[in-house]
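User: Some background: our group keeps a shared notebook of sequences we're curious about, and every so often someone picks one and asks for a predicted structure to add to the entry. Today it's my turn. The entry only has the sequence so far, pasted here. Could you supply the structure so I can complete it?
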Amino acid sequence: MAEQEAEHTTPDATQDGATAGDTPNTEQAAAIYTQADFDRKVSESAVKMQKNQEAKQAERDAELEKQRLEAAGEHEKLAAQYKAEAETERAKRAKTEYENTARKMLGEMGLGAHAETLIVGTDSIDVLADKAASFKDAIAVAVTAGIEQAKHTGTGIIPKQNTQTTDKTPDKMSVEEFQKFKEKHGVIGRV
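Assistant: Of course. Here's the predicted structure to add to the notebook entry:
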């Protein structure tokens, strides 16, 4: 910076562009820039540099703040996503636990085969227990109504429950046992 100022204060040039040959006093031409002028130029330049540095620092700070806010926004988005995934997982676990408990309870009540039908639309064991009890009552009413209807058909024959506990199937029976089976059950032809 001092060199630039020195170039402008050469003894050969004056303020209006005349050279030393044009003016008789070279000392007067050199005195065009005084120490006060030099100090003023240096302080103006320092102020300008300071303003430029402050502006650049403000831009960097704004960019860093923008990046920080974007990162914070992404963190919030990720946190919300993880929270939603955790909530979904908790709901799945609770549903699975409920279904397992419900199946066990219905199995103990003798309604294990109807578990899928009874579980649909319920989310509480108490509600399911009431629904299962109503279902059992409805079955009992239907069976009783069927028996009563059979009594009133004029035949008076009440269908018997199958109480046979044999595990023999026709392919495991001897020839004699199979003949008896055919006669008893009225099987015609090959089985």
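Suggested note for the entry: The chain has a mean pLDDT of 75. Helices lie at 2-8, 26-30, 35-108, 115-119, 125-151, 175-185.
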